[in-house]
Amino acid sequence: MSIQPEQPTGITYAEAGVDVEAGDRAVELMKASIKATHGPQVLGGVGGFAGLYDASALLSYKRPLLATSTDGVGTKVAIAQAMDKHDTIGFDLVGMVVDDIVVVGAEPLVMTDYIATGKVVPERIAAIVSGIAAACQEAGTALVGGETAEHPGLLGVDEYDVAGAATGVVEADALLGPERVREGDVVIAMASSGLHSNGYSLVRRVINHAGWALDREVSELGRTLGEELLEPTKVYAGDCLDLMRFLNTTPSAGVAPLHGFSHITGGGFAANLARVLPTGLAATVDRGTWELPPIFRLVSQLGNVPQADLERTLNVGVGMVAIVEASQADAAIERLAARGTAAWVAGNVTSRTEEIMNDPETVQGAKGVDGGAVRLVGSYAG
């Protein structure tokens, strides 16, 4: 009689590094924060194969245009992981996505997120999503779906990355863009909350080169370096939509005075502003109208970063720009101030002259857009 050798235990999904039960626990922990973003337009609950949104309101549009955007937060996630603080990175994600949508005048309606991680830690995933949900509430956007994927062997157990996508709508005749911008318009800058979510590869390289730890107290910042680097991105969607409705709903002489927005992200101030100007016009922006915030001065000094490189990598204190008729500049600034957003006239739009185009600091177009020209002049205040 032969004895069969004992069969080895089969390999399970858990042994491969994927914990399905942990994923389910994470969903339970995040349900409340997600539901807080839902209005009556959202159908169904959390966990469906697809998020459902009642778009009946679009029936009142003459010609509704859908606007969509997708983004991540880059290497800022490395700071969140190093500090083991995950409830603010969601603001960075939402800001990077929905504020690209409002640039064309669209209202961001729905958003979905994607989180990839080496190991699902339910509390950590729930903290990330709580930040996404809180930022969606601030933007007036419903978080209707998402995915958490466990990638053992590809990411470390404490590593993750996040991405998101959103869809919005704008009436065709309210669409903002370069064709609305006119000579004589003014450039209104809106203050950033800090570095936001761009240029962290440069920032991290600088602080590593300087040998500074994240828990280092920095007097110029009034807190630790890590706390400053993790400051959430300011979400401008609500401010921009409010300003657009305030200025453009009942325009004088039938001409809408708010002509455009520019979200200042990767590529810096000049390059992003140039994308929303027509080819025949140029904007001159005076650095002297604002003071360079301490974190930008610190990065520049620690890394001996050339000003040109700083300005084409970081937002240098301005996170969003509005382009409006000069006669409405004061009203726009007052409206933004009432909502808690500091703003000021930083420059003006003129025809594109030889002097401007011959200036080596002038930037024309960016990211495949053959737009207008922008040059920054003068020195920062302070």
UniProtKB/TrEMBL annotation:
Domain (PurM-like N-terminal) ranges: 62-170
Domain (PurM-like C-terminal) ranges: 182-355
Pfam families, A to Z: AIRS, AIRS_C
Pathway given in the UniProt record: Purine metabolism; IMP biosynthesis via de novo pathway; 5-amino-1-(5-phospho-D-ribosyl)imidazole from N(2)-formyl-N(1)-(5-phospho-D-ribosyl)glycinamide: step 2/2
InterPro entries: PurM-like_C_dom (IPR010918), PurM-like_C_sf (IPR036676), PurM-like_N (IPR016188), PurM-like_N_sf (IPR036921), PurM_cligase (IPR004733)
Record keywords, A-Z: ATP-binding, Cytoplasm, Ligase, Nucleotide-binding, Purine biosynthesis
Annotated catalysed reactions: 2-formamido-N(1)-(5-O-phospho-beta-D-ribosyl)acetamidine + ATP = 5-amino-1-(5-phospho-beta-D-ribosyl)imidazole + ADP + phosphate + H(+)
GO molecular function, one term: phosphoribosylamine-glycine ligase activity
Gene Ontology terms describing biological process: 'de novo' IMP biosynthetic process; adenine biosynthetic process
Domain of life of the source: Bacteria
An annotated GO cellular component: cytosol
Compartment(s) of residence: Cytoplasm
Enzyme Commission code: 6.3.3.1
Family under the similarity heading: Belongs to the AIR synthase family.
Stated name of the protein: Phosphoribosylformylglycinamidine cyclo-ligase
Organism: Galactobacter caseinivorans
Encoding gene (name): purM
